[in-house]
Amino acid sequence: MSDNKSDEVSEKILNVARKNPKGISDKDMAAAVPELTSAELVAAINKLLQQGVFDLYNQGGSLLYRLKNQNSKQAIKGADNEEKVVYNLIEEAGNKGIWIRDIRIRSNLANTQLTKVLKSLEGKKVIKAVKCVNASKKKVYMLFNLEPDRSVSGGAWYQDQDFESEFVDILNRQCLRFLQQRADKIKNNPRGPIVGRTQSYATAAEVQKYITDLGISKVKLEVEDVITILNTLVYDGKAESNVYPDGNRVYRAIESLLPPPGLVQVPCGVCPLIHKCNSTGLITPQECKYMDEWLEQ
Amino acid sequence: MSRQLGRVVSQILNRYFGEIVEKVGNDLFMYGSKPMGMIIKSTGLPRTQVIESLRTLLKFDLATFEAKDVIVDYKLLPDNILLLIRYPRYLLQMKTKYGSEAEMLVEELLQQASCTATVLIVSVMNKYKDDKEKNLNIVKLKDTFISLATAGYIQQAPVAESNSEIPILVPVATIVPDLDVRELINAMNTNLNNVSDNIYWKVNYDRFHLDFRDEVMIKAVTRRIDDNAGELLKLMLEQMYLSSSSWASDSSPVPLTDLKDGCQRISDNMKNHVEQYLRVIEESTAFIRRTGDAGGGQYSVRIQHALIQLVEALCDHTVTERLGGKAARIFRLIRSKKYIEEDDIQKNAMLPNKECKELTYKLLEEHFISVQPMRKAASAGGMAKAIYLYHVKLHDVAHVIRDMCYRSLHNVMSVSRHTRVLNARLLDKKRRVRTIVHGMRLRGEPQQNIDDVRYIFCIYILRGAWTVEVLDTLTPPEVTSSAEAERRLNTLAASELHLDRELFILTSYFTYQR
Ligand code: SF4
């Protein structure tokens, strides 16, 4: 597609969109530019999405594209040159955002001036600062109406840049429960252990469906998210994973090879003072409260 | 050798042989090896007592000696001292595998350290001849002795070669003896000193340890997969004894056809799915490995590898209990990734940044993980930040855990010693009463009398021809508190055995690491 032609196409789509402020579906778009093949259409839509012209909505199972309000563009109209430069840089960075240091280097503005510009843009609600999950001190700027990228916001596990560990814990437990329900299938299976093992395996997609059906998650979890959780189970030693011939990862709940060993059955094994406990001195086994309590039972 | 080991060893010697032997043992432990004169000097004990102690230690194989010219150096064998704790386990093994005759024989042999077959059988006979319940007979004892010798649970003791003044112990190959029942019966009725039997026997710990090792592995596979898998592994281990040395790190390969023959005996389900089971065991535990394709596939047992995994499981449990499940997650994550950066830990473990860091440092502090700084070579000068890679050195962690086991064992033993001292009078009394009750039973006294003594309400019991004077009595509060003390002692004893089981796995692991 030449640039000219693609501009033309974009313009046509935008026209339709402007007429329907409630949003349009991809069928409407196809109708607007019937001469395009579906692949070309998709390319065009993607381009528009990238430019951040559309917001994407899910309505009654079908996707709706709605034109974003163009205030920001207009807001910038009245701005001075510095603001325009900075705005453009930020716009270019898309939903990944741009770091203040990079803006400074690329805009050639002095530090104080740049802060002032950013302040004013922020005040006009044209841009926003987003805390980056990877580096807590690092802030990135992006256009106000953009949804931050996963790498910035951290995806499903973050709420306002705070890691939601309780949420992860709950998911971790639910996944395990799901795997455990079928874990026993391998035991003495009359059709042999391989069939048994296959029956006790679960794919990430199955687990994802189970979790979604449970309805414990406010956000939609992708299969990748569930894989991340399942992997924590593997690191917990509560599951093993394997790869099917078709490349799908499967998971199975397992037992530890050993029952809790002797060390953790005595109070010393879990005692925080074990390295300070001696035959003489303040902490001795004879005087030990932990021992006493344990023997009381 | 660690200080903690020294403390445990000292406790054990104290319990089984008393304070003097403990003192000599401590002295030897501290200095490695030293001649008798030095021991007398540093312990300040009289010569006769030191000699007596050394004799005991040598008799039970808890120390050795080495001649240098005319001086003899004595050396403690701490590993063997630790085995004293394991005696109950040996006996249990005998009882389950060969019945109570074997248990009695081994018990007697452990107590005597070494003795001839005749003496052994005769003393077991004499000991229990009054006991109607046991119903011993000498033929059965003899047969049991022979099967134990054949299976290698007992072996011939090394003989002393005394060319010079200082004897050297030479191990001899065990020949299964041919014992004559008539001679044994003769020996029972005459003086034991006249018996001409001069082959000495002792317990072969190693044989027991093989059993224990197999048991641990089989149980692990059973836990992970199912009973059939356990049976299959058992079969493979049995095959291993036929073809490779028993402590080899990998067994020599067994062809599938042999395994199929063996499985026929177990169950139909097994027979049809041998190959599947082999694959599942291999993939899920890596205790075995397919080594070749000849004869439908060759499989070998990876003992060393299995022990590594078992020790890993021990580490996991320990970390989980000490620092919590989250720390264990980090620990395993680091172990599975070999080397990993701090940021990546956080990402994979799905923990909040702060908590993750805290736990990582705690793991570091307890020496469960180690860290290796890596300078980025030849990058732009001062800007280059060193990266820190975390990793798990299993060997070191196993050491840490072993030390903790020693410590705990010492603590448990010393608490039990303390309890015993505190309740000495009470427990002693109880024992005496118990002996009386036992005596009455054997004599067939009516139950009524026995109960009387048990709860001792009367001080004098006069019945028929037999008179007992029970001077010490147990009052009801004494009965409760002695029961309480005994309950505590039992709990402690059980933990000792559990700790010993863990130590066994660790020790076996270390034998392969050398
Ligand atoms: S004896 Fe008590 S203080 Fe000492 S290590 Fe054990 S539990 Fe801790």
UniProtKB/TrEMBL annotation, chain A:
Q: Which domain of life is it from?
A: Eukaryota
User: Can you list the GO cellular component terms from the UniProt entry?
Assistant: cytoplasm; nucleoplasm; RNA polymerase III complex
Q: Which UniProt keywords apply?
A: DNA-directed RNA polymerase, Nucleus, Transcription
BP GO annotations: transcription by RNA polymerase III
Kindly list the places in or outside the cell where this protein is found, as annotated in its UniProt entry.
Answer: Nucleus
InterPro entries, A to Z: RNA_pol_Rpc34, RNA_pol_Rpc34-like, WH-like_DNA-bd_sf, WH_DNA-bd_sf
- Role according to the record: DNA-dependent RNA polymerase catalyzes the transcription of DNA into RNA using the four ribonucleoside triphosphates as substrates. Specific peripheric component of RNA polymerase III which synthesizes small RNAs, such as 5S rRNA and tRNAs.
Could you say which protein family the record assigns here?
A: Belongs to the eukaryotic RPC34/RPC39 RNA polymerase subunit family.
Give the protein name, as stated in the record: DNA-directed RNA polymerase III subunit RPC6
Q: Please name the source species.
A: Danaus chrysippus (African queen)
Taxonomic path? Eukaryota, Metazoa, Ecdysozoa, Arthropoda, Hexapoda
From TrEMBL, chain B:
Q: Does the record's keyword annotation contain Transcription? A: yes
**Keywords in alphabetical order:** DNA-directed RNA polymerase, Nucleus, Transcription
Q: Which InterPro entries match?
A: POLR3C_WHD (IPR055207), RNA_pol_III_RPC82-rel_HTH (IPR013197), RNA_pol_III_Rpc82_C (IPR008806), RPC3 (IPR039748), WH-like_DNA-bd_sf (IPR036388)
| Gene Ontology biological process terms, A to Z | DNA-templated transcription
Major location, coarse class?
nucleus
**What does the subunit section of this Swiss-Prot or TrEMBL entry state?**
Component of the RNA polymerase III (Pol III) complex consisting of 17 subunits.
Q: Which PANTHER family match?
A: DNA-DIRECTED RNA POLYMERASE III SUBUNIT RPC3, RNA POLYMERASE III DNA DIRECTED -RELATED
What name does UniProt use for this protein?
Answer: DNA-directed RNA polymerase III subunit RPC3
